[in-house]
Amino acid sequence: FMNKQSFYDLLTRYESGNCTESEKLWLDQWYGLLGDKNISNLSSAELDEMKDNAWLKLKQNTQQPKKRNTLKLIWVKTAIAASVIIAFIISGIYVFSDHAESSFMNDNSDLTLISKTNETSKPIIISLNDNSEVTLQPKSNIIYPKVFAANNRKVYLKGDAFFSITKNAKRPFYVYNNKLIVRVLGTSFFVKQSLKNLPAEVAVRTGKVQVNENTCNDIINLPGEKIAIPVLLTPNQKGLFKAHNIKTTLVEKPIPLAEAYNIKNSINYNFKEENLKAIFKTLTDAYGIEIKSYNEEILAYTFTGDLSKKGLYEQLDLLCGSISSKYQIEGTSIVVSNKN
Hints:
alpha+beta; Jelly Rolls; 19 strands; 28% strand
């Protein structure tokens, strides 16, 4: 009897190289019968029927007359092997795009899990049992335990959400999606799912988070396959994941740390004959972003003006415009230099 679990078991044995040659060929036949169907929507009876049809086709193929020369036979064997591998990979992409989700569900099967989808046109707030809050964007889904485990807190996200996590050093909080695993102790951050050619994204508002690649989404892990190096993100930084690489940069609209942490602002942005070296330090302290210049002449320039109620990049535009210079983002730092 072919149910979904036994089918998954077969794929696992294929991946580990423990299935028979006939099973490998059956996978090829099965993929041909799948068409545009999704295994998640198939019943065990339908799977069983597909299994029988696949074996029947396989039997018919093996009964065909073998009028082939040696060269053609070698080519056919190669083609069959290639078709099995290609069929498996393609069906894995199509059928098991939620493999990371299935892995998460299995790893947390001892907990009562809740699945919530935002079917409205506006963000909704979901309260977790540790008093953390998730602002779930429209059409996004989150899977979370009714009660978290004793030693950790794990959720699975499909789509986009903003997290505000209560601090608990003994129970780290993990956010999984199909590409990344985000580990935090207590912080607020935004997680964005990868879509089409766009990278998966994690942007930090407060605290620190560690971002790892979620390898559970890979059906086949080839020996020596590249895995993204984990990165640590701090406020106003973000990580972009694509092609087994996590690139660190700055968020589109950095906000002062005082605003992020909801504390009183003690920084004065009204400067009078202040040299740029001191102003860059003030902005660095305000945003938690290193702002620097390798040009001592630029650092010696002075500026007079009020930069209050302006975003960081607008502040930098005004500063650079006053001395005909430019700035550019290099990783998680900002470097000011001459225009030429």
